[in-house]
């Protein structure tokens, strides 16, 4: 491997002015159309342009620098301002949009993108997402949209089977893990207050028994956010071990130290270490105190899809609810979170709605009874497409490949002078430091400025770290080698 791969050079990018003046954005003259100006053929030109630009974007991902080239403020001045008085042709809108927005796009679909926990979009899932937009179904009711309802139900059954979760559970498709946590914890709130004799639907939260929510000290902040949305306040943090796993002895002590309704939130995949909570022991303790158990498995729940990694989630099937993201490990387009609730009556009571103008199905629960939305796109369609494209063995291979790439990155970075890998790399997360906090920040900044790869800085266990999330289906050995070399180059440039 050479010290620098010319494929990823940022030198040829001009981050200053970019000219879109060659696009004609003049008046929208309908006279040249021989057919009805509102006919379906009017989609053709705009869709053709969109396909062209989509192909160009996807083709650029293997070689383009990862970071965006301009700031949002600069783009806002060109995309905003006063709304023009006159219309323009749809295809001109597409041309203008593609030209103006492209410099501000981050190559999140690149195999060299390791920031946050963001996957790419696999071909079948992307194409299915385009169809979903073209079909334009409001996927709330089985009666109104049986096609998309059937697809989502099939995808839900496949997910339960792949992840080893109860086959009778409800599966709902939401925007992301935040709303998946919200939906699951809404069901939990409903159930534990009902068990305590409180009628939440009639009386609300005012005067209700205090619901204790116990979480590991290193949970993801979206759990706290969901609790805030639900009016449950701040959770009770429970001590975690050196890898971020909840300590079962501390959980029991905390549960024993109070009374009343309780919810325990566990974690499949720590944000920094990728570690998994000890599910059998923690769930057994929670059950002794009558607590609802929820598992936040935004990316880690997918370990259950392969026999080689299933031991990481052993026992989590005994929980009451789970949250995950399909746009992370499964690599479907944004946005697609998944909420899974075994105690379906609580979920449907907390989230469902009944009105005279809504035609409910007599055969099975409507999608609107499983998620906190009435109007939503059929997010489960790309999930079905990804699963059908991969099959059981393909999903397992995808998850195993992500974990193997994480181990390879960790091994490569550990060999860089001055670098230390801080976590046990059990899944797809790697955290590294380069000496003291100042040097780690400098190496991270230099790495991001280089543009070859994207790895985000963070802070874990009271020190600054370089955090690496391996989530993209297209990441290969060459991407891993290029990434390690980029880290080596960045570290060498910081004394």
TrEMBL record:
Keywords: Aminotransferase, Decarboxylase, Lyase, Pyridoxal phosphate, Transferase. GO terms for biological process: carboxylic acid metabolic process. Its cofactor is pyridoxal 5'-phosphate. It comes from the Bacteria. GO terms for molecular function: aromatic-L-amino-acid decarboxylase activity; pyridoxal phosphate binding; transaminase activity. Signal peptide: none annotated. The modification N6-(pyridoxal phosphate)lysine is found at residue 328. InterPro entries: Aromatic_deC, PyrdxlP-dep_de-COase, PyrdxlP-dep_Trfase, PyrdxlP-dep_Trfase_major, PyrdxlP-dep_Trfase_small. It holds the Pfam family Pyridoxal_deC. Residues 1-26 are annotated as: Disordered. PANTHER family: GROUP II PYRIDOXAL-5-PHOSPHATE DECARBOXYLASE (PTHR11999), MIP05841P (PTHR11999:SF70). Belongs to the group II decarboxylase family. This is Aspartate aminotransferase family protein. The lineage of its organism: Bacteria, Bacillati, Actinomycetota, Actinomycetes, Streptosporangiales.
